[in-house]
């Protein structure tokens, strides 16, 4: 596929944000519009048109649709579901800089994403106020220079790949100039939801420094891996970038062993190793996605009995203050 290098910006600008338009495009019942509007007032709808193509028209329980369709249920506050379930706000060493785990620092370089996932634990995060890009990265880079024990920087967000290649190339160069850094990790959903983002300029900065690149993508359901997404993954893989996937375990989306097994198979066929299967972070507005821990453990046991060991993702939960993701067994 030939893509002009700036095509992705048009696709990003052209995402669907009006619930009525989404519902019309997919021939869904009109009654969904009003609750979707109400939920979208708290956390906007946002979805690329190419991602909508992977949803089945007329099916309001479609597994890809459910990830992005705002529902009335989101507006009901529930005990035990908070606005900062993983303690990111208190953990921020600097605005947007999270140093929670040994040896690696996560830079939430933007709050923006190409898609707004309804279960996202960052849906309440005050990004515009806490963005390390403000002040030209100086503070974040200064922190990294002073922390010789850090060898890996994770660009995250939001989605770091909504930034343009010039800025990302410049940031990469400045990171590569810090001698103790070795690895540049990208956490992004764009290769899946906006595959045109994986263009030559991106591959050039990502592979063009002395830092070892690695990318962690985010796929929850096998239907997300259409031809365009697998082609984008192939471009990354051909450039020598190791690819891992993280999945969030979501009720009504992927809480079935057949779905998860098929996802692992399709990921592997696309050159991606399943990395984490996350239990839902208990964020306000996402309670309807919760899968009980006991069921999650059974699901993973079924996968282990069916699949090669390297195709079974690690079931984890994030707990505020913990030194890493907590394995659930
Ligand atoms: C998840 C996460 C990481 C990465 O953890 P790995 O187990 O290395 O994938 C790093 N920092 C923060 C703040 C995180 O939330
Ligand atoms: S792409 Fe990731 S960060 Fe963005 S809304 Fe979805 S889950 Fe959240």
From TrEMBL:
Q: Please provide, alphabetically and separated by semicolons, the GO molecular function terms listed in this UniProt record.
A: 4 iron, 4 sulfur cluster binding; isomerase activity; metal ion binding
User: What is catalyzed by this enzyme?
Assistant: L-lysine = D-beta-lysine
For binding [4Fe-4S] cluster, which residues are annotated in this chain's numbering?
Answer: 113, 117, 120
Required co-factor(s) are: [4Fe-4S] cluster; pyridoxal 5'-phosphate
Q: Which CDD domains match?
A: Radical_SAM
Q: Which Pfam families match?
A: Radical_SAM
Q: Does the keyword Ribosomal protein apply?
A: no
Modified sites of kind N6-(pyridoxal phosphate)lysine? 325
The alphabetical list of record keywords is:
4Fe-4S, Iron, Iron-sulfur, Isomerase, Metal-binding, Pyridoxal phosphate, S-adenosyl-L-methionine
Locate the Radical SAM core domain: which residues? 99-323
The family this protein is said to belong to: Belongs to the radical SAM superfamily. KamA family.
Q: What protein am I looking at?
A: L-lysine 2,3-aminomutase
What species is this protein from? Answer: Thiohalomonas denitrificans
